């Protein structure tokens, strides 16, 4: 009986969490050493890529290994400045003002901004 109740509680939390996630912005604004930036739920800095086209990610394969996309959950929908783009592999990725968003594998702690300016094509996502 206890296992059944725990399973029901966990399932309820997952459903509620999904509903909350769909109704909230996928990122928040935080202060970094380079000013205000968009960050994910863990406080990790988000970046944009100059070689992306509006509403289209051009960072795939090895690029996406180094710059993991900020993935959107199934059913995520555009709202305000936020949109969802379809990646070449069919996955869904969040975009802000039409620019797909990414993390940088070399940022290891919340608030780090080591990806800003990499190859002169990666930039902190500004609110």
Annotate the secondary structure layout.
Layout (H helix, E strand, L loop, with lengths): L1 H22 L4 E5 L2 E5 L7 E3 L12 H5 L15 E5 L5 E5 L2 E2 L21 E3 L3
Antiparallel strand pairs: 1-2, 3-7, 4-5, 5-6
Q: Gist?
A:
With 127 residues, this protein is of the alpha+beta class. Helices cover 21% and strands 22% of the residues.
What does this structure look like?
- With 127 residues, the protein is an alpha+beta fold.
- It has one domain (26-124).
- Helices cover 21% and strands 22% of the residues.
- The protein has two helices and seven strands; from the N terminus they run αβββαββββ.
- It has a three-stranded antiparallel β-sheet, with no helix packed on it. Strands 1-2 form a two-stranded antiparallel ribbon. Strands 3-7 form a two-stranded antiparallel sheet.
- A hairpin with a 2-residue loop joins strand 5 and strand 6.
- The radius of gyration is 16 Å and the shape is globular.
- The termini are far apart.
Keywords:
two-stranded antiparallel sheet; single chain; three-stranded antiparallel sheet; 127 residues; alpha+beta; globular; 2 helices
Average pLDDT score:
86
Q: How much strand? A: 15-25%
Number of strands: 7
Helical fraction equals 10-25%
The SS-based structural class is: alpha+beta
Please report the distance between the alpha carbons of the first and last residues.
48 Å
Question: What Rg do the Cα atoms give?
Answer: 16 Å
Please report the number of helical segments. 2
The unreliable regions are 1-22
Question: What's the structural domain tally?
Answer: 1
Tell me the major beta sheet. Answer: 3 strands, antiparallel
Order of helices and strands: HEEEHEEEE
Overall morphology? globular
Across the major sheet, the strand order is 4-5-6
């Amino acid at each position: 009986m206890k296992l059944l109740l725990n399973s029901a509680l966990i399932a309820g939390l997952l459903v509620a969490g999904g509903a909350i996630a769909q109704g909230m912005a996928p990122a928040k604004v935080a202060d970094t050493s380079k000013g205000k930036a968009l960050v994910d739920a863990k406080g990790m800095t988000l970046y944009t890529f100059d070689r992306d086209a509006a509403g289209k990610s051009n960072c795939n394969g090895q690029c996406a290994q180094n710059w993991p996309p900020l993935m959107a959950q199934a059913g995520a929908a555009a709202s305000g400045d936020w949109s969802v783009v379809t990646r070449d592999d069919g996955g869904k990725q969040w975009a802000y003002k039409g620019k797909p968003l990414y993390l940088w594998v070399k940022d290891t702690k919340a608030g780090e901004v080591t990806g800003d300016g990499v190859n002169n094509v990666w930039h902190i996502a500004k609110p």
